[in-house]
Design goal:
about 200 residues; mainly alpha; HXXEE domain-containing protein; membrane; transmembrane; transmembrane helix
C-alpha cells in the first residue's frame, strides 16, 4: 500500500488543484480576499508539484543527476523521500495554516506565500544558471512567484498584518526552505560524493 502511495501520490495534485480552486473561489473569495490569497497558495503549489512529478515530470532524475551528481534517477533522493518531503509541508502544513488563518489569525498563513516565492526562486535560479528547463520552472515563474508576490504586496499595502507578522512569516518560510536545501544540497550530496563534506 505504501509503495503504491509513493508511486502515485503526485497524480492526485492536478485533481486537488482543480477542485480546491473551485471551492476556494466559491466559498472564500467574496467573504475574505486576504484569506482567499492564503488559501489559493495551496492549489498553486499542487500545480507546481504536478509539473515536477507528473507532466512533464522528471524532478527526481533532474535533481539527483544534474544537481547532486548521481548516476541514478532515484538516488539519493527516492520517491519515498519525495513523498515525505511534500506531504507534511503542502498537504498538511499549507491547509492547516489556511484554516488557522481563518479561525485564529490571518498572519498565520502568510508564510505559505513567502515559502512559495522562495521555493519558486530556486527553480528560477536553476534556470538562469544553467539556461535550461527544470521540472517545476513554468509554474514557478508564471504562478508561484506572481501569486506569492501579489499576496505579500496586498497584505503589506493594506496593512492586513503587522510588520512583525511579515517577519515571522519570512522566518518560517526561510526555515522550511533552508532545511530542504541543507538536507538536499548538503546531506544528500555527501552520499553521492563523500569528499564534498
Amino acid at each position: 500500500m505504501m509503495s503504491w502511495i509513493e508511486e502515485h501520490w503526485p497524480k492526485s495534485t492536478i485533481f486537488l488543484a482543480v477542485y480546491s480552486t473551485i471551492l476556494i473561489f466559491l466559498f472564500v473569495l467574496e467573504i475574505d480576499f486576504a484569506l482567499f490569497l492564503i488559501w489559493i497558495q495551496l492549489p498553486v503549489y499542487w500545480l507546481h508539484q504536478f509539473e515536477e512529478y507528473v507532466f512533464p515530470g522528471g524532478f527526481l532524475e533532474t535533481f539527483n543527476k544534474k544537481v547532486l551528481g548521481s548516476n541514478e534517477n532515484e538516488w539519493p533522493i527516492s520517491k519515498r523521500a519525495a513523498l515525505w518531503i511534500n506531504i507534511p509541508i503542502i498537504f498538511i502544513a499549507f491547509p492547516l495554516s489556511a484554516i488557522l488563518a481563518g479561525t485564529v489569525d490571518i498572519s498565520i498563513g502568510i508564510w505559505t506565500a513567502y515559502f512559495s516565492i522562495l521555493n519558486a526562486a530556486s527553480h528560477a535560479g536553476m534556470f538562469v544558471i544553467k539556461w535550461k528547463y527544470n521540472p517545476g520552472f513554468f509554474i514557478s515563474a508564471f504562478l508561484n512567484i506572481p501569486v506569492g508576490v501579489f499576496t505579500v504586496w496586498y497584505f503589506y499595502s493594506n496593512n492586513v498584518i503587522s510588520t512583525f507578522g511579515h517577519l515571522i512569516g519570512i522566518l518560517v518560510a526561510v526555515a522550511v526552505q533552508g532545511s530542504l536545501m541543507v538536507w538536499g544540497l548538503k546531506f544528500m550530496r555527501t552520499k553521492v560524493n563523500p569528499l564534498v563534506a
